[in-house]
Write a structure and sequence with these properties.
The complex is a heterodimer of chains A (about 325) and B (about 325). Chain A is an alpha/beta fold. Helices cover about 30% and strands about 20% of the residues of chain A. Classes of the chains: A alpha/beta (about 325), B alpha/beta (about 325). The interface between A and B is large, with 45 and 52 residues.
Chain lengths: ~325, ~325
């Protein structure tokens, strides 16, 4: 990972949600850094804290402890300057656009609010940037006249309108049709190259994380358990949970008849975050769990290939 | 053979006219086989399987063709032409369904035990408690969970309970509509493993619908690819993945980035899925097809044999005439 200052970073953040009767321990001491021109993928199952982390990075709500830093400076709260740098792309492009207004209005509004020139040329340039051409035609359409993939590209164009340096994508392709998902992924990859954006790609699909990203972070039940260059995490997973995720993901190359599914191990399910297991939260499902795993969360072990994991298996001291 | 579908049409009847969601679909399902049906949203896959078990609701209606079910005992039955009353005899015992959203499919205000007892009693089971325990155990749920309400269970557990419920009366045919779409990958793998193991043990046949072709390649024996309401390719699962005959199948296959194989730039399929109200006269895939030629706009290709598979694509016409 580069030595430069991350554009946006969550440093040792913890988030607990208090519902009055109980506390949901959604995130525990998580660190994630986003760098210029790099895509970081955040993978994990539902409830692992992926979206909570993205929302902390976007200042949707305050951290319980830890810090969110923009270019090294601690961010104290959301303001327009912050959103001039950090933008979000949501999962559902049917809900994230104003459905009563034309595409050009949706995009122009972001330009205006952030004080950029908002003429037709500027709007068309943004639409062309996300491959919505001829831009003049798309500008005059209403969101319902577009397909899911086209709408998601409008949402991306709107995010780009403020000229951000960070784009946070929370499952940006999971609601799109299979055949057009790659289109959006390739667009994100191009924006990384051309605009030097720092990108967070949140997904439950580890194969698409590998396709798109430079680095992959793996979360389990609110804890960050592994991270590193995408290929090391995929080809040589260090944490048993990463291994489980990889083994569980569909992989047609593995199919020999239908034998891949026949090992019916009882793999269990993620724990409740109201009363999570102590130590490493994966220990109740981990085939390698030791006494140590049940009492204390392991420190980070770093490897020569640039990856790291928090797992007692890799920490002999 | 357990199911023989011949020229099935399903229309959605609207004020502006009928929209054909399933168009001239024919296939046969062998005993104990898992047939996967894959395609994008709007391709007609869910409508197709709802038609197979006659659970369509207006405005959808079967407007042509036959669905012959060959039960273990008794004569073949054309499901498409029977009355609901006649079908009741076959439901649960011969055919059952697992739906996508278990939270919606289960009764939220009844304990699991009550929902199982309901089905079992209606089909003449006496000792419903014992059978419920047996069924839950089959899908890896502890029998004492029978007292739980659906909201007390995780999504994965509810989905497995749905599968157990579908198997309550030992059906011969189980249709599954995206049963693992709403659960995480680890749970998905457990559920699929269970389906395979139970199929082995109980011998039922499955029609499994999903948009995830990569998953079907591992699960299904054969796969049907649907596009614009029609089956455009049908063949052995491994063959569909290794040597797709239809450009759409190839495009769909290449829309899934590999998990371990070297990463290359993938492009998906340009354009968007067709509007069923306004299909091209030729091949429905023609506007998006990288290999289209004059014939494709003029005539619609028939689903014909290509090697061991079936494909509806003019690219294979020449081979065919050369052989004839």
């Amino acid at each position: 990972m580069p030595e430069e200052t991350p554009v946006l970073a969550a440093e040792d953040v913890t988030k607990h949600f208090d519902t009055g009767r109980q506390t949901v321990r959604a995130l525990e001491n998580v660190t994630l850094r986003l760098y210029r021109g790099r895509i970081a993928a955040l993978v994990g199952e539902s409830g692992s804290g992926k979206t909570t982390l993205a929302r902390l990075l976007a200042q949707f709500y305050p951290v319980t402890s830890g810090e969110i830093r923009l270019r090294g400076e601690v961010v104290s709260g959301p303001d327009k300057d912050f959103y001039g740098e950090v933008q979000l792309v949501f999962q559902d492009p049917f809900a994230s656009l104003n459905s009563l207004r034309k595409v050009e209005h949706n995009v122009r509004r972001a330009l205006k609010l952030h004080g950029h020139p908002a003429d037709d040329a500027a709007v068309h340039e943004l639409l062309a940037k996300v491959n919505l051409t001829p831009a003049a035609d798309f500008a005059r359409k209403l969101p319902h006249e577009l397909s899911g993939g086209q709408r998601q590209r409008v949402a991306i164009a709107r995010a780009l309108a403020v000229r951000p340096s960070v784009l946070l994508g929370d499952e940006p392709i999971s609601m799109l049709d299979v055949s057009i998902r790659l289109d959006v992924l390739n667009l994100l990859a191009r924006l990384r190259e051309e605009e030097g954006l720092a990108l967070l790609y949140i997904t439950h699909d580890i194969a698409s994380a590998r396709y798109l990203s430079d680095d992959i972070y793996v979360m389990y039940a609110g804890q960050m358990v592994e991270g590193g260059p995408a290929e090391s995490v995929i080809q040589e997973p260090k944490h048993p949970y990463t291994q489980l995720l990889l083994d569980s993901s569909p992989d047609p190359e593995r199919a020999g008849g239908s034998s891949a599914f026949t090992a019916t191990a009882k793999l269990g399910e993620p724990p409740s975050l109201v009363d999570p297991p102590p130590g490493c939260r994966f220990h109740p499902r981990c085939p390698f769990a030791k006494e140590q795993c049940k009492t204390s969360f392991p420190p980070r072990t770093e490897f020569a290939d640039g990856s790291w994991t928090n797992c007692w298996l890799h920490n002999e001291s | 053979m357990i199911l023989d579908v011949k020229g099935l049409n399903v229309d959605y009847i609207t004020a502006k006219g009928a929209v054909r969601a399933v168009n001239d679909v024919s296939f046969q399902l062998r005993r104990g086989e898992i047939l996967g049906v894959a395609g994008e949203s709007g391709c007609g896959k869910s409508t197709l399987i709802m038609a197979l078990i006659r659970l369509l609701r207006p405005p959808a209606a079967i407007t042509g063709g036959q669905v012959w079910l060959h039960p273990r005992e008794g004569e073949p039955v054309d499901i498409a032409s029977r009355t609901d009353r006649e079908l009741r005899r076959l439901r649960w015992r011969s055919m059952a369904v697992v739906l996508q959203s278990a939270m919606d499919a289960l009764n939220p205000v009844a304990r699991l035990s009550a929902q199982f007892a309901d089905v079992l009693r209606a089909h003449g089971y006496k000792n419903t408690e014992e059978r419920t325990a047996e069924l839950l155990e089959m899908v890896g749920i502890s029998p004492d969970r029978a007292r739980s309400y659906p909201h007390e269970m995780s999504g994965g557990m509810r989905q497995r309970a749905m599968i157990a419920l579908a198997l309550a009366c030992d059906p011969e045919l189980v249709v599954m509509d995206e049963p693992t779409t709403a659960v995480d990958v680890v749970m998905q793998r457990q559920i699929l493993a269970q389906i395979l193991e139970l199929r082995e043990r109980l011998g039922f046949s499955v029609v499994f619908v999903t948009h995830d072709l990569s998953l079907l390649v591992e699960l299904a024996d054969r796969i049907a690819i649907m596009y614009g309401g029609r089956i455009v390719e049908l063949g052995e699962a491994a063959e569909i993945y290794r040597a797709p005959k239809h450009p759409y199948t190839k495009g769909l296959r290449d829309s899934f980035p590999p998990l371990h194989a070297p990463v290359t730039r993938l492009n998906g399929i340009p354009g968007t899925p067709p509007d069923l109200r306004n299909l091209p006269t030729g091949c429905a895939f023609e506007p998006r097809c990288p290999r289209r030629f004059a014939d494709c706009t003029e005539r619609r290709p028939e689903l014909l044999a290509v090697g061991d598979a079936l494909a509806a694509c003019h690219l294979h016409d020449r081979e065919r005439t050369a052989r004839a």
